[in-house]
Amino acid sequence: MEKFKMPRGKPCYLKRRNITYPTKTAFLQRMEEIRNSHASNGKCYIENPEYIADLKDFLEDFYSDVERILSTHDIDNCKFFVQKSPNYSTSCIYIESNGVADDFSTSKFNPPSEKAKFSQACSYILIPKKREIKRQKFEESDLIGDLNNYELIHQNPSWGEIVDQFILKKNLSEILGNVISDDTQGNNAPVFKDEYSNLNQEFLDFYDSLNLKYELKG
Known about the structure:
alpha+beta, four-stranded antiparallel sheet, 16% strand
């Protein structure tokens, strides 16, 4: 059986910056831009907030081995750097957190697992809420500059832990493959099937109940 690959003509939506790359090829070029602009003889950390946001979205929403990455790394409190890999002839992008660093390929756009798609659906539900919280924190902190240069983060629990807690609370682990619709929002964003649309509000209520402490990082 031929292995499924993400169509190159399908748009790629990035939730953190609320932008869409028109094709997979355009997004791949963005990933190459990030890597090539930091290629050097040593370790070069990525500081550009937009680059960091795009790399986080890539790992969460497009990377084939997302569950391994999220089980090892705290995506909200990580760093990225570019360094020559001992296993390849070119430089690679690494994610670093909790004293561990792993490289990852930015050309692997394989279909995500059922849990990864569920996690994506939950993350898209939160976009308007997080955008408003981000704006409020920006104003409260008397920050200056472009709001898009700051990322809204919280320390604990991590995003993966939040999703796991919700799945456990709603007893969804055995039916994750049944709750996500094959139809998307015109991009790569998974959505819940109509018969599970109640999960949209239930996840929002659950998220609010966590009383998370946010901060802006830029």
